[in-house]
Structure prediction request, 266 residues.
Amino acid sequence: MIIDGDEIDAGLLFGAFRSALWFPRYRVGACGAWRVRVMQQPAVRGYWGTVYRVAGTVMLTGPSRDNAEVWMSVTPMEVESQEIGIAAAHGHTVVLGLGMGWATANIALNPAVERVTVVERDRDIVALVDALGIFAQLPDAARHKIDIVVDDALTWRPDIPVDSLQADIWLNVVEPQKWNDVRRMCDNIRPASLYFWGQEMELWRLACRAVRQVPDILTPAMLDAAIVDCGVPLVTAEGPDYAARITTGAPWWTPRTSDWWRIEAS
Prediction:
């Protein structure tokens, strides 16, 4: 375990971007193959397509098939892609994937949440977040809600009912097997509601399949049909603006190949 450097308030790196969420202070650190780093960036694109001028980002890098990849960061893109789920969390909320801890922390701060169970399979991630003192920065009431279980998100089963499921275990926003993973999680956990990272781009995938091409826009009717078609209890934003935001964000976060939406998990 290596923890070094001065504390960095991740929220102060956001520049003009604003969020109502809480962000912890980080230090550069490492445990096993996982590292928290700070990178200077002049501008980044948000989840819904807007470009923001920023000072930099705090990120978590870790192993992938080929080399170290960025698995999570504190950026407008990551924040905007988690806000809907965090706001909708309630009762007993299960978080699949600990990451950098800030999403779990904000779920615990949600007054509608009574208990947070985090399922993380990598002990080094758990040790790194603990060494960085992420949850120690929370008020006692929020911190005491959190319980971490070392287990596999795709096989874990709860022993009490789950009101809200929040899943973020993937490297990429869009992945061919993601719907299969989500349905498997739901079969095991039986949540009353669900939000998973990148779900808007996966709903776009279903909309493309329905019309057999990439549409110019995602209409509210097309989005509603995709939500019904997915077969899981998704939490979504209300109003026609949701479909419009997906339309704007999709070109930036989906593959550039014209038939990407056809690809199934092997």
Notes: The chain has nine helices and twelve strands. The first strand starts at residue 2 and ends at 9.
